[in-house]
């Protein structure tokens, strides 16, 4: 079967590029002496998590309880839920997950930690806990000055084992030296404050794809959790962490209308690509590999509007294009299946098993 035989829209993954991305980051983490705990929210597929573990990942990360359940089949030695777990149903399910593998939780409150500790005790399991710290994104996490106190309080909760610190530098979109130096200073200060309070953080977990290859410049960091790097996308290119040829994922789409002069419609819109803009807020909704000058500027649910005024070539109904999305993680979540291609051949396909697992 070749790529021309696929129905559209289809999410296609160039296996050679994906393997190169995986190997590059595994090698980087090993050479920088950083534990790699890839975030599986990007691919949502246990088969790919297994590949990351084979290449040396120390564990994996998830955001959702449902993702944790699905990822058990990858047999991770440790599973980090890098999202505050709140609510009885989720806790009950995570206790069951913790009965099967080691589970680590990133938490920023006692309100979240206490019921988890009680449930762990009752279920005869233990949860490792990282104290989540806000290092500038302003999303979750206690302020750095309050983090040691939260760790001390968590240490007193039966059923929980405090292991270290987690943070997510999502506010830094590229390897800008000044921002990186600021981050490094904040993290070093944090580790210093923990030590001054008599606490030794065994795990200091951070690291995103944009900062990936600068992780060794962040003092005290010993674990990284990149997710997007497996496929990359237009945001990763903009961050400077990859080049166009490192983008493994694209959406294969068909031109379904050229009735309006200067424009074509492709058979994918917001339900295929997601409506995410580039992090910079600029640009369109994806880059057409066949004609980078074509401007994919608007979407309805199932229609992609492409302005052809500056396109390098003409298109007719039935033509196919491959589009690299702005933000691959949300695009993957919209697709049931990924098609793995090598050259023009479809070599394999796999179900996106954790797609839609939002609870
Ligand atoms: C908590 C957390 N860790 C790690 C990541 C992975 O970062 P990236 O998508 O830049 O690879 C994310 C991404 O949203 C995240 O929210």
Question: Which descriptors would you attach to this protein?
Answer:
10 helices; nine-stranded mixed beta sheet; eight-stranded parallel beta sheet; 359 residues; alpha/beta; binds pyridoxal-5'-phosphate
Ions, cofactors and other bound molecules: pyridoxal-5'-phosphate
**Model regions low in confidence, pLDDT < 50 over at least 5 residues:** none
Distance between the termini: 36 Å
Which strand-content bin applies to the residues?
Answer: 15-25%
Q: Which shape, going by the Cα principal axes? A: elongated
The count of β-strands is 17
Helix proportion: 25-40%
Structural class: alpha/beta
Main sheet properties: 9 strands, mixed
The Cα radius of gyration reads: 22 Å
Count of alpha and pi helical runs: 10
Description of the molecule:
By secondary structure, the protein is α/β, with parallel strands linked by helices. The protein has ten helices and 17 strands. The strands form two sheets. Strands 1, 10, 11, 12, 13, 14, 15, 16 and 17 form a nine-stranded mixed sheet that branches. An eight-stranded parallel sheet has the order 2-9-8-7-6-5-4-3. Helix 4 (88-98) packs across helix 5 (110-122). The chain is elongated, with a radius of gyration of 22 Å. Pyridoxal-5'-phosphate (PLP) binds at residues 39, 82, 168, 208-210, 225-228.
List the SSEs and their pairings:
Elements: E1 10-14, H1 15-31, E2 35-36, H2 46-54, E3 60-62, H3 65-71, E4 78-81, H4 88-98, E5 102-107, H5 110-122, E6 127-132, H6 147-155, E7 160-166, H7 177-196, E8 203-206, E9 223-224, H8 234-239, E10 249-257, E11 263-266, H9 270-273, E12 286-288, E13 295-299, E14 304-307, E15 320-325, H10 328-332, E16 337-342, E17 345-351
Helix pairs in contact: 4-5
The structure holds pyridoxal-5'-phosphate.
